[in-house]
Amino acid sequence: MGHVDVRPAPPVEDLPAPPPRTPPKWRAWLWVTVSGALGALTGAATFAVGGYVTLSGNVKHEAVTQKDLGGEARPQKISKALNVLIVGSDQRNGANARYGKFPGERTDTIIVAHISPNRDGAVLISFPRDSLVRLPACPAKGNLPGQRPHVGMINESFNSGGIACTWRTIEGLTDIHIDHFVKVDFTGFKAMVNALDGVQVCLPQAVHDKKALLDLPAGRQTLKGEQALGYVRARYSLGDGSDIGRIQRQQMFLASMAKKAMSGETLTNPATLFGFLDAATKSITTDPDLTIGVMKDLATSAEGLTAGQIRFVTTPWRYSITNPGRVEWVQPQAQRLFRMLAADQIAKNVKSGEQKIPKSQIHVLVRNGSGQQGLGTQVAAELEQRGYHIVKVEQAPQPYAKTVVAYSGNGESRASRLFRELKKSRSRLVRTGTTQTLILGIGADWNGMKPPRTLDDVEGFDATQDSCTAS
């Protein structure tokens, strides 16, 4: 097998455009969490008129017209599901200036939240920030220059034409009719975490990261404020150092955050709940039609929605060979995913509970003993594309003749799942060691991985999963 230089995205500051930015993916949970918690709050006698007015006054609005979105050229709405575009803003003025200044406003988090018609299932599809896609024309608006049709990074649209251009871009790429948008402020994350009195995480190994101001032991712990922000922003001191690995870690953090926000200890404590909602609503901007009242009505109708019925997936992707540091969508899997969501077919999979061992809970250490330089990084990237959690990539202490998947304890089912995705060579499955992390030892016989056959081969996870249940 020849070596293909498919590497994790380099630091953004090493690329010609856009300017440096940080990608906290925690914003993805906000809309679902706020809606669910707000529904519980409105059902309680403690939700006084004054509190409702306060929350309503917190939310900012920005108008988006049908003309902005292309008028009759927009995708038709073919189901009664609700689709909400969620973006995270890295605007660096005001309280955000401490994280570095640059002109304009950028987004590196783009997600579509799909809520089923009966409000009994939700799927949040994220779009990798470095995706190379065909961008549409968007007119100049205010101090924004507008956008000409071209192939570029998906997050260019926001800086060129604002939320309306991003909305138009996503509808054009996916053919999904978007009903509302939510834009989330960069610094609100810390306030939400603190309002919950911290969020619990579990680390497979200690972290010492001077840049992120992190000094954490291995194991279970509760993170607050700056420590939590540092954890979701850190890159090189955790996992394999790639941005995709960081996205996985951030999503798991958000799962823990969402579970706590939806738990009895939060929903039955008026002060805690209101503090969380106050912090959350101060951080968002929506279209004028998505008011607190609409969120309340939606949340009330979704009162029975559980964490297990909320699922996160990522658009099927691969690292670009022709454009290093960029991402391309895998077809036809991506378009099939979008069609399923537009027709409200994907939510049925959420309710079925079909997934037994989420790949996000399968931790893998990749050890390259093949003799091919860079192959370990390439294999790690492919495993991440399929949903596995990469703990680390390292060089083997000596060459391996055969590829081995090693496990210990009760890890045989997880190891077997990974082993079945490898192309058959002389590779073998062995029980060894004392760690719950799987070890993929890449040998000279490495023959690659089997191509994904279905959407299930590129998995997400539901909101019951978090880093403290991964093993």
Q: How are the SSEs placed, and which strands pair?
A:
Elements: H1 30-42, H2 49-58, E1 60-61, E2 82-89, E3 107-115, E4 122-127, E5 132-135, E6 150-153, H3 156-174, E7 180-184, H4 188-195, E8 199-203, E9 207-209, E10 214-216, E11 219-223, H5 225-233, H6 243-261, H7 264-267, H8 270-281, E12 284-286, H9 292-301, E13 310-314, E14 317-319, E15 327-329, H10 333-342, H11 347-352, E16 363-368, H12 375-385, E17 389-395, E18 404-407, H13 412-420, E19 428-431, E20 438-442, E21 461-462
Parallel strand pairs: 1-12, 2-7, 4-13, 16-17, 16-20, 18-19
Antiparallel strand pairs: 2-3, 3-4, 5-6, 7-12, 8-11, 9-10, 13-21, 14-15, 18-20
Helix pairs in contact: 1-8, 1-9, 2-8, 4-5, 4-8
Q: How would you portray this structure in words?
A:
The protein has helices spanning 30-42, 49-58, 156-174, 188-195, 225-233, 243-261, 264-267, 270-281, 292-301, 333-342, 347-352, 375-385, 412-420; strands spanning 60-61, 82-89, 107-115, 122-127, 132-135, 150-153, 180-184, 199-203, 207-209, 214-216, 219-223, 284-286, 310-314, 317-319, 327-329, 363-368, 389-395, 404-407, 428-431, 438-442, 461-462. The chain is of the alpha/beta class. The strands form six sheets. An eight-stranded mixed beta sheet has the order 1-12-7-2-3-4-13-21, sandwiched between helices. β3 and β4 (122-127) form a beta hairpin. α4 crosses α5. The longest helix is centred in the middle third of the chain and has 19 residues, at 156-174. It is globular. The model is unreliable at 1-49, 96-102 and 349-355 (pLDDT under 50).
